[in-house]
Design goal:
The protein is of the alpha+beta class. Strand 1 and strand 2 form a beta hairpin. The radius of gyration is 19 Å and the shape is globular.
Length: about 160
């Protein structure tokens, strides 16, 4: 996939409405689970989302909400490419929006093995220039003792949820 346009307000609309609107063509892709969006009440809080121009949108809320902006900094609120979604829908592979994403971040997805690893390479088109490392690897290691052993032997540099021993 090669984008034909810059990331814009259409991508924001796509990403929000996919979660909010049960009739959105992508709402049920990948089982349509948007727990956090619903748990914090965004489905009820957001009355309307309007595109103002290519780079501005307006949220109309049903009531004031101090946490609204902070909620959009969470991972569930990642902005996805509507153009990519359209292309994948036409190809018959709409699930790629979730399993093989594209974006403007510092790294690009290179490989994904379910329950095993996620491998990224530096994005040469990253908007903020060159990134400090060329590769980023997430080794999916469910066992806490194995994770700790990988850290202690420098097989990895960071682990989540170390055992409190």
């Amino acid at each position: 996939f090669k984008p034909t346009r810059d990331f814009n307000a259409d991508d924001v609309l796509f990403s929000v409405l996919r979660q909010k609107d049960a009739n959105h063509p992508y709402h049920n892709v990948s089982h349509g689970q948007y727990e956090y969006f619903h748990d914090v009440g965004l489905d009820k809080l957001i009355k309307e989302v309007k595109k103002i121009d290519d780079y501005h949108i307006q949220f109309v809320l049903n009531e004031p909400n101090a946490a609204f902006l902070a909620d959009w900094g969470m991972d569930f609120a990642s902005i996805l490419s509507a153009e990519y979604a359209d292309a994948m829908l036409k190809k018959g592979t709409p699930e790629y929006i979730d399993t093989w994403p594209v974006g403007t971040g510092p790294y690009a997805l290179q490989q994904y093995k379910v329950d095993s690893l996620i491998r990224y390479v530096a994005n040469p088109h990253y908007w903020d220039g060159e990134v400090p490392t060329k590769h980023l690897i997430f080794s999916i290691t469910p066992n806490v003792e194995t994770r700790l052993a990988k850290l202690q032997t420098n097989e990895c540099q960071i682990i989540p949820a170390p055992s409190p021993v």
